[in-house]
Design goal:
By secondary structure, this protein is mostly helical. 47% of the residues lie in helices and 0% in strands.
């Protein structure tokens, strides 16, 4: 395994697995796989009782200074900044959509819903709810802009992913890591079922779990 691949997998190791992320509200990106980061939130934040204080700090900084390079003197520093934005808005478009969806699975933010209600835009205009929604959208756009800028700077300095756009080698490594995680998660679920006596072989034909009774010496 090359040094580049090891570094990539180390970066991926910082990302939460899909299922545990469901219980980690603070770690969820403010965009979801459906709609994607490119679609950006379609639901007004006021409908979900949220305010601008809940916009991640990394995005508020991006709004104020999207092209700031203070303290980013190394590829590692750039990579960390890119990862912070990733945690806020999800994977970048340099990763194929299928892999982006696998990374984002289960990390749906609480202020995003998957459907769009017709004519809601008109209602928002009448109610005056657009100001806060625009603030959220601007924060997401600023994050995407800053991430692209940082990767461009990283690429010009010869940095590796995530401090630069992903190459075919990086994507292959990401796919392999996601496959490994999927296998690990499936094996973990299987082990849990075995511990609970929930394997199919431990059930009756009606699906009722079979519980073995302890044998006590001397009893008939």
């Amino acid at each position: 395994m090359s040094t580049r691949t090891r570094a990539l997998i180390a970066a991926l190791a910082l990302l939460p697995l899909a299922q545990p992320a469901l219980a980690q509200g603070d770690s969820k990106p403010i965009t979801s796989k459906d709609p994607s980061a490119l679609d950006i939130a379609k639901t007004p934040v006021t409908d979900l009782n949220l305010d601008s204080k809940e916009i991640p700090e990394v995005l508020t900084r991006a709004v104020k200074q999207p092209y700031d390079l203070t303290g980013l003197n190394s590829c590692a520093a750039i990579g960390r900044s890119v990862q912070e934005i990733f945690a806020a808005i999800g994977p970048d478009v340099d990763i194929p959509k299928e892999e982006r969806d696998r990374i984002s699975a289960g990390r749906v933010a609480k202020w995003i819903v998957s459907s769009f209600i017709p004519f809601r835009g008109l209602i928002r205009e009448i109610s005056g709810a657009n100001d806060r929604e625009r603030e959220v959208r601007a924060a997401i756009q600023a994050g995407m802009t800053r991430r692209g800028f940082l990767k461009g700077v990283g690429a010009s300095r010869g940095c590796d992913y995530p401090a630069a756009p992903a190459t075919a080698e990086d994507i292959a490594a990401i796919e392999a890591e996601l496959d490994r995680r999927d296998t690990e998660e499936k094996n973990g679920d299987k082990d849990t079922k075995v511990e609970r006596g929930e394997e199919q072989g431990d059930r009756t034909s009606a699906g009722v779990p079979i519980v073995s009774q302890p044998v006590v010496q001397g009893q008939i």
